[in-house]
């Protein structure tokens, strides 16, 4: 009894989470929330509250948010597997694209406001400062993934090739973390925490832990028992050689159920 109440509660919790995530407001809300760090940074810069070096602070903030969105996008599949909330998958592409968006803001702030489009100096930086080279590598991977993120590209590349290519997102994540570790001076724990999270997500992908009830593809697509027609033709139909009509377990015909 207690078990069935608990399991009904957990089904309701998952169903409620999935219903919220599937609602037509969910994507606009997540989209708007993802723009808040940008608006907030611009506001702080405008009001002069971004510190003594506002350009460097903007470069740092956008880099940090690029890495955060990348890790959040990577965390959605493990979260879906752990909680069984299948609706989380809807947001993977959007959040991955936000990682790319913040990386673009990061790069353009660096090129336009930090280096004033001084291309020889930028090239010197890329070659001479290894953390910039690594950051550029991460950016090139993110650009490739963003360019191939459309449904059309999935079709053109074929599911298998597309998935193989998009596994490179972990390389981008690790390169982003390495970029962060390399640029900080001295021993700092923050970049190491980001790297540990990225390695943990990669490890989860390799050795997934499944807790509680699952919503893998079979479960998700499965119709509740009792609503699936079963092919148990009436004896008369078989004798007459007619094609058997699917029936529900209670014997009624699906054609007669609304
Ligand atoms: C496109 C090539 C890139 C360039 C040229 C670049 C350049 C920079 C620069 C100049 C800084 C500031 C360094 C300082 O504190 O003096 C920085 C910081 C940072 N970048 Fe990048 N970056 C690039 C790509 C990326 C990418 C793709 C990511 C994330 C996936 C990223 C994440 C970060 C982070 C987390 C920081 C440190 C923020 C902090 O100190 O709080 N960068 N980057």
From TrEMBL:
Instruction: Tell me the cofactors it needs.
Output: FMN; heme b
For the Ferric oxidoreductase domain, which residue ranges apply? 63-176
Membrane-crossing ranges are 29-46, 66-82, 94-111, 131-148, 168-186, 192-209
One GO biological process term: protein repair
Enumerate the subcellular locations listed in this protein's record, separating them with semicolons. Cell membrane; Membrane
Q: How does it sit in the membrane?
A: Multi-pass membrane protein
Protein name per Swiss-Prot or TrEMBL: Protein-methionine-sulfoxide reductase heme-binding subunit MsrQ
Q: Which organism is it from?
A: Azospirillum oryzae
Taxonomy of the source species: Bacteria, Pseudomonadati, Pseudomonadota, Alphaproteobacteria, Rhodospirillales
Gene transcribed to yield this protein: msrQ
């Amino acid at each position: 009894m207690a078990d069935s109440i608990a399991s009904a509660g957990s089904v309701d919790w998952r169903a409620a989470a999935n219903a919220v995530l599937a609602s037509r407001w969910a994507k606009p809300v997540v989209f708007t929330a993802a723009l808040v760090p940008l608006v907030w940074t611009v506001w702080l810069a405008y009001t002069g509250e971004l510190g003594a070096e506002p350009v460097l602070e903007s470069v740092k903030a956008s880099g940090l948010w690029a890495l955060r969105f990348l890790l959040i996008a990577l965390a959605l599949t493990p979260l879906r597997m752990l909680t069984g909330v299948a609706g989380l998958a809807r947001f993977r592409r959007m959040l991955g694209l936000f990682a790319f968006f913040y990386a673009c803001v990061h790069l353009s702030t660096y090129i336009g406001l930090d280096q004033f489009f001084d291309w020889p100096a930028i090239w010197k930086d890329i070659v001479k400062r290894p953390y910039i080279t690594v950051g550029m590598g991460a950016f090139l991977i993110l650009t490739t993934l963003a360019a191939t993120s459309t449904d059309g590209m999935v079709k053109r590349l074929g599911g298998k090739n597309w998935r193989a290519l998009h596994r490179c997102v972990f390389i981008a994540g690790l390169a982003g973390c390495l970029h962060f570790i390399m640029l900080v001076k001295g021993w700092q724990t923050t970049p190491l925490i980001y790297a540990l999270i990225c390695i943990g997500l990669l490890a989860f992908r390799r050795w997934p832990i499944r807790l509680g009830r699952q919503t893998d593809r079979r479960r998700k697509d499965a119709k509740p028992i009792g609503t699936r027609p079963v092919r148990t033709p009436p004896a008369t139909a078989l004798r007459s050689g007619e094609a058997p009509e699917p029936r529900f377990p209670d014997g009624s015909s699906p054609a007669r159920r609304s």
